[in-house]
Amino acid sequence: MKKSVLRATAVVVAIMMLLSLAACGQSAPAATTAVSETLGDALSATTAVSETLADALSVTTAVTEVLGDALTTTTASTAAPTAPTTAAIVQVEGPRPKISVAVMDFGTFPADRGTIESNNVTEWINENSPVEIEFISINRAEVTALYTAMLAAGNAPDIMSDFAVEAFERFVIQELLLDVTDLLDEYGPNIKAMVPQEVLDWGMHEGRLYAIPKTRNETAVPNWMQFIRQDWLDNLGLGMPNDFDELYDAMYAFTFNDPDGNGIDDTYGYGAGAGESEGSGPGFGGAERILNLYGAMRDRWLPYGEDGLYDHVAITPNRRDAYKFIERMFDDGLINPEFFTMTGQQARTEFITGGVGTIGMQVGSVGVTMLNAMKEIDPNANPQPMKTLMSPYGQFAYLQERAAQMHIMIPTTCKDPAAAITYLDWLCSTGWEWITYGEEGVYFERVNGRIIRIGDPEERSHALNNAGQYSIAIGYREMISDLEVQYEYNKDRMSDNEKQALLTQIAACKESMSHEFVWWLPTLHLGLEMSNELLPQMNTFAVQTYEEAVINKNVSIDEAYEKIINEYNALGYQELRKVYNERIKEMGLG
Questions:
Q1: pLDDT at residue number 87
Q2: Calpha distance 67→399 (Å, rounded)
Q3: Which fold has domain 98-219+401-432+464-476?
Q4: How confident is the model at residue 14 (pLDDT cuts 50, 70, 90)?
């Protein structure tokens, strides 16, 4: 039996590197580079912050927040957009107005810079903005619940931001948000000029604008994917897997053929544990990449029904057979049998220390800190993005985020909506640059009109922590091609591991964007209260039932599938399905 003690020394190395970072007071920002990864950073895929040991928040907001839904995200052009000339800020008449603005707190803000509500950035904003701002800290892990309570109490901030599309949908249906269509015409010339219509459309409800979505950087469109030890493939004479049969063969070899050449039976193939579990178990997050590539991602409705209608993903053959593949690897010993109890930190430690050959992580996760730790153990360690595998149901894609990032909302309780729009317009025109990138010549340079980060990554990370939560409206979009410009501009000043980290980031972005990813519907519930009431219970049951079947040899996935269908029907699924598909037709989405 494989013993975790065999890797005790390697784990100590990784932990010592983590502690050394903590001792220096370093923390990862919401926007940094692929060469400034920080262990232990927390991210979230919905409303909870995922645990990560070696997660890297890199290059831009490419690995910042990845939440919300999208209609369709296609492979984006790498051509850099040309920013329009900024318009003059429309000044609000009378004394300088004052509003309150929510700022999400990820718990990583450096104490030596102040608080998230009062620091050098908030001071700069209040010195330069046409509107005086009172910043209100909102715990990221509880943001939607906190807004809900504040809206009910009538004391919500004048400007709120949230990544969850469902929260925006619910608030607008409950008539808690201000219609800003006409206000934007009068006070938001820069927003209208710089925010693409495809992004603004995400803030629309019945033809009116109720939120101003923030444009997502192209570098932030690719998100979660699988990484694999390329050096292990090379050691065993294997090529990069192209489909799930080849993935199984590679994972078998990683488990039983001593891929690291140490003569000890101490490796597993597939890293199913990760910090982005979609359901109840803490360790199925890594395996979710398999669900993605079977076209059965997360809690969504998909047009896979034999009658051409949408079905909830849990009862599709795609989801069933994706779990069958996971179950096969688990039963055959290719996955650590304790994976479903692992936290995100433990899963990444297992990958860093060479206990497993693959892992599901965000595209920028292979940063300098991770590479330093891995190469202390194995100088030849070479983690690379895994190819987008072909599934038995055809070619699908890794997760790609929508063009809109967060929703910027103004509640009906706001006493000065004109000032709120004026502030957002100022951010979109000029304010975003200093807030997001810091001082030119210190933290960034312009190369052919593009912004390229420079300077010490750790110093920059510290200085710009949480930048993306202050620059909630922005007049610039970072492109994947910018990463290549950044590499060429900085390569002579970079270490080997810094170069490898950035090149891996570029490769991961390109691989993730190599196939079209489709979000079939704009939101989960489509404004249906029936869906909002029934689906959470249904989905929780389905996730738990599938996951239990994977680890219980006495229950097959087919049996779990039938159990899920029966439970869905008992809870009223057929009526929900009818109403849901009628709603799709009403909205012109089918």
A1: 64
A2: 11
A3: D-Maltodextrin-Binding Protein; domain 2 (3.40.190)
A4: very low
